[in-house]
Specification:
The chain is α/β, with parallel strands linked by helices. Helices cover 40% and strands 16% of the residues. The strands form 4 sheets. Strands 3-2-1-4-5-7-6-8-9 form a 9-stranded mixed sheet, with helices on both faces. It is globular, with a radius of gyration of 29 Å.
Length: 556
């Protein structure tokens, strides 16, 4: 197929609007049926019969049929789009149309994952940094899934060599070849070729490798890709990996991060929002590597994970598009102008932090810096573990017999930090190990998994409440402190910032229990103890009054 036949297709794919893709698909399919003299109904009225025919011909899923059929409820809009596409496309024969239809079947049915998406703003700016104003470059895209990065970097490249892992040869490969003249190898045995990298063969590169994949030798694939690119590319390159790469506590991963930092080639790290790579709930980071001869003693940390960097109009549930503000922060930072979400961090400081490479731990907001400053300025304080008994709740198991208990979870805690009536029940015998999770009055529970940092105060006698494994039970033992005072300390703005700084995780967040144990609670005064007790009792009284009024209202 000639490039001119795909101009409109390229624009639609770049738009990432599934309705437009579906409309274009429908237009192609109808044109195909016209040319085959198989159109069963009028083009200007009802498309449903044609869709049914297409569904059988191309083996559509029910979801795909529903999505396309939903578009037929708006015939004017659909027909206008169709006529526009007809006007701009040149189809010479059935084979050309059928090839296009097959490509769209893969795009719409999910065979070609939307991780091949075109986040044009960030990838364009990043590609400009990679190419550094040069042209006629040899570009390397091993196992890349980001279409726009290939597109923008490829504009300056004379060689585009793509190795992309995929056990199914999807039609997205044909699309890339047609649009960008890229040579693609989708064979699984491409893994083995990574070990035969040509030293200093390429000028620039970009990769978004498959996530969470391990090779037969148990090596983590992201590490292998980065090592391969480091060997093969003499100029700049970038690689997008899960953010877990930055903080994974495995010795092997920490050692690899240390190797990258000490190479002094790692120039910058950008923390991206969850959903940046479409189709995955993982948060990701972009690693930016400098020229081979680089000697970077500092690494630029850029945190773009905040929701304020989301373009609401262009973002979908399946992917998160960065707005112009985010691109300005990134663009300014790599040119030397740093905002509050950027920080140049020395490799010595990174080493002191166990080679943690997550930008949000370094590029702190002004508010976060102020909160941490307050903690450090406490005149006297004690660690939480020194003033309280702390127990990490274990997984509960329903014995199916015995006494009925209520299990407290995060959803049972209201916005003020109190539990009124948990709903999940289970039966436990007196011998059950789950009884170690039993709660008592004046306990404080703190979530260290999932909804990290959720805190609740148990304000009443509860003979049959237990807590689930996401929580730590905190039972104040130091008489100089009161449960109400510790509860208020743990729900303060300073504590929330401390939690945000140390929480980690790609999909399910977690907070290290050691960090909770080491959290410093400011020594109380007589006045602060009285104030904490008074405020807590006042909250309890108000919530009780609200509950009574709700009950009365329901009975009227």
């Amino acid at each position: 197929m000639k490039r001119s036949h795909l101009l409109d297709f390229e624009a639609l794919v770049s738009s990432l609007d599934r309705k437009e893709l579906s409309t274009f698909f429908l237009a192609c399919t109808i044109e195909l049926l016209h040319k085959k003299n198989e159109l069963s109904s009028s083009l200007d009225s009802d498309f449903s019969n044609d869709i049914s025919k297409c569904a059988k011909l191309y083996n559509f899923s029910k979801e795909m049929c529903s999505e396309i059929l939903s578009l037929t409820k708006l015939p004017n809009s659909l027909m206008n789009s169709y006529k526009e596409i007809k006007k701009n496309c040149e189809w010479d024969n059935c084979e050309q149309i059928e090839e296009t239809v097959n490509r769209l079947v893969d795009l719409l049915s999910g065979k070609a994952s939307f991780s091949h998406f075109s986040e044009y703003r960030f990838s364009k700016t990043l590609s400009e940094w990679v190419c550094d104003g040069k042209s006629n470059l040899k570009a390397y895209f091993p196992y890349n899934n980001l279409v726009e990065a290939v597109r923008y970097t490829g504009k300056n490249a004379k060689v585009n060599d793509v190795l992309r892992y995929n056990p199914i040869n999807t039609t997205i490969d044909n699309l890339l070849m047609a649009l960008f003249d890229i040579s693609i190898n989708t064979k699984i045995e491409g893994f083995d070729k990574l070990s035969d990298a040509k030293v200093d063969f390429y000028d620039v590169g970009f990769s978004v490798p498959p996530f969470g994949l391990k090779l037969e030798n148990r090596e983590i694939f992201e590490n292998t890709i980065i090592e391969n690119m480091t060997t093969s590319i003499k100029g700049r390159f970038a690689c997008i990996v899960p953010s877990g790469f930055a903080f994974n506590s495995l010795v092997k991963q920490k050692n690899y991060r240390e190797k990258l930092v000490k190479s002094k080639r790692l120039a910058a790290i950008v923390e991206l929002p969850i959903g940046y790579i479409a189709g995955t709930g993982l948060s990701t980071i972009a690693l930016l590597f400098d020229y081979k001869e680089a000697n970077n003693n500092d690494i630029l940390m850029i945190d773009l994970s905040d929701s304020k960097y989301k373009d609401e109009q262009l973002s979908f549930r399946s992917n998160f598009v960065l707005n112009e503000s985010a691109i300005k922060v990134f663009s300014d930072a790599i040119k030397g102008t740093l905002s509050s979400k950027c920080e140049k961090v020395s490799i010595d400081k990174i080493a002191a932090n166990d080679y943690l490479l997550l930008p949000s731990r370094y590029a702190l907001s002004d508010e976060m810096k102020e909160s941490l400053k307050k903690i450090n300025e406490y005149k006297s304080s004690k660690t939480l573990s020194s003033i309280a008994f702390m127990y990490r709740a274990q997984a509960t198991a329903n014995d199916g017999d015995g006494k009925e208990y209520y299990e407290v979870g995060a959803s049972d805690i209201n916005e003020y930090g109190f539990v009124s009536a948990p709903t999940k029940t289970l039966l436990l015998t007196p011998q059950s190990s789950s009884l170690k999770n039993k709660l008592q009055k004046n306990d404080i529970i703190f979530s260290i998994k999932g909804t990290v940092g959720k805190v609740a105060f148990i304000d009443k006698v509860v003979d049959n409440w237990i807590v689930n494994q996401s929580f730590v039970i905190i039972r104040v033992t130091d008489e100089a402190y009161t449960p109400e005072y510790v509860f208020k300390q743990l729900t303060s703005k300073v504590t929330k910032d401390y939690i945000a700084l140390h929480a980690a995780g790609n999909v399910i967040k977690s907070f290290p229990i050691d960090k909770l144990k080491d959290f410093r609670v400011q020594d109380p005064t007589k006045e602060s103890l009285c104030a904490a007790k008074e405020k807590t009792q006042r909250q309890i009284k108000i919530l009780k009054a609200i509950e009574d009024l709700k009950k009365e209202l329901s009975e009227i």
